[in-house]
Amino acid sequence: MDQLAAMRAFVRVVETGTFTRAADLLDMPKPTVTKLIQQLEGHLRAKLLNRTTRRVTVTMDGAAYYERALRLLDELSELDASLTLAQARPSGRLRVDCSSSLAVSVIIPALHEFHARYPDIQLDLGLSDRPADLIGENLDCAVRAGEIVDQSLIARRIGEMQLITCATPDYLARFGTPVHPRDIEDGHQIVAYRPALGGRVLPLIYQNQNETIELSGRYTIALNDGMGYLAAGLASHGIMQLPTFMARVPIADGRLVPLLLDWCAAPKPLHIVYPPNRHLSNKVRVFVDWLAELFAREELVLSRNADSLPGCLPEILPAIPTPMPPKARQLSSNSSA
């Protein structure tokens, strides 16, 4: 029996909950995984897993063995890596999960730089606003916005996402331009964002030196994907509050008008997360460091400054021209004539 192979197979079955998924991740036939587990149980003279046609559960002996086996495999990986890290170029397949909006707007345009530094890394980039199961889906790391719900993950905070309120010129021509956050509750429509895991839609939150205002309002449509959220706003379905890196281009070309710039929206933290109890490989480490460097210099994804209060949008959008509202453009055109 190859005990190391059997231990790896057992750990994967426990983490994924199925022999089929474990076999896929290990790139071996399912009967091979089954045989390895049977050999391991025979070697240990203990039942590690309870198997039915629908699910796999871990016995008490199996749970204890899993914890020890996981530590041993991690130590072995760390030992191997420590001897090769100095001379090895980062290489291999790197599996990363990220929201489509952040990837399309910030990460993908800069990937030429990453591949120039690390040409031997093959990047598998999964795009979804749904928080992925890092262990079950065999992911190396993920980029997530907002507070980290799963406290078992290791998280590195790499920046803050600033938000800006926008609407299209067509929407503002039909519904008017709000000058105070409370105006949104009076006859306006909202494009809402609902987290992928369900629950209530995220409110619009505004702050100034004196007060914080949280608005739920009446939404016409709620979406759980950032790119769909932007598309709904561009289709004039209502007022929306979106990250500045998504709003930059449509504001500059006049498709969106920034609103309520005298009010601050609380920024959302950005984290890179990766599974606990796993050795951080060289390829993951260089990607995490590169991503932190990228976000640190991206003017609309601010690097974290623990001593600063949330910045207001006029300070971070100095280069974006603010298009005149439809009525103002019409008056300007008439006066020039």
Task: List strands and helices in order, with pairings.
Elements: H1 3-16, H2 19-26, H3 30-44, E1 49-51, E2 56-58, H4 60-84, E3 92-98, H5 100-107, H6 111-117, E4 121-127, E5 141-145, E6 154-161, E7 163-167, H7 169-175, E8 190-193, E9 204-207, E10 212-215, E11 219-223, H8 226-234, E12 240-243, H9 244-252, E13 257-259, E14 268-274, H10 282-297, E15 301-302, H11 326-336
Parallel strand pairs: 3-4, 3-5, 8-11
Antiparallel strand pairs: 1-2, 5-14, 6-14, 6-15, 7-12, 7-13, 9-10
User: Which H/E pattern describes the elements?
Assistant: HHHEEHEHHEEEEHEEEEHEHEEHEH
Number of DSSP strand runs = 15
Q: Let me know the largest β-sheet.
A: 6 strands, mixed
- CATH fold group of the largest domain: D-Maltodextrin-Binding Protein, domain 2
What percent strand?
A: 15-25%
End-to-end CA span: 89 Å
* Basic shape: elongated
Which structural class fits the helix and strand makeup?
alpha+beta
- Please indicate the count of domains: 3
Structure description:
The protein is elongated. Helix 1 crosses helix 3 (30-44) and helix 1 (3-16) crosses helix 4. The protein is 38% helix and 21% strand. The chain has 3 domains: 3-84, Winged helix-like DNA-binding domain superfamily/Winged helix DNA-binding domain (Arc Repressor Mutant, subunit A); 93-159 and 269-302, Periplasmic binding protein-like II (D-Maltodextrin-Binding Protein, domain 2, 3-Layer(aba) Sandwich); 163-266 and 311-336, Periplasmic binding protein-like II (D-Maltodextrin-Binding Protein, domain 2, 3-Layer(aba) Sandwich). With 337 residues, it is of the alpha+beta class. The N and C termini lie far apart (89 Å). It has helices at 3-16, 19-26, 30-44, 60-84, 100-107, 111-117, 169-175, 226-234, 244-252, 282-297, 326-336, and strands at 49-51, 56-58, 92-98, 121-127, 141-145, 154-161, 163-167, 190-193, 204-207, 212-215, 219-223, 240-243, 257-259, 268-274, 301-302. Mean pLDDT is 81; it is low at 302-311 and 318-337.
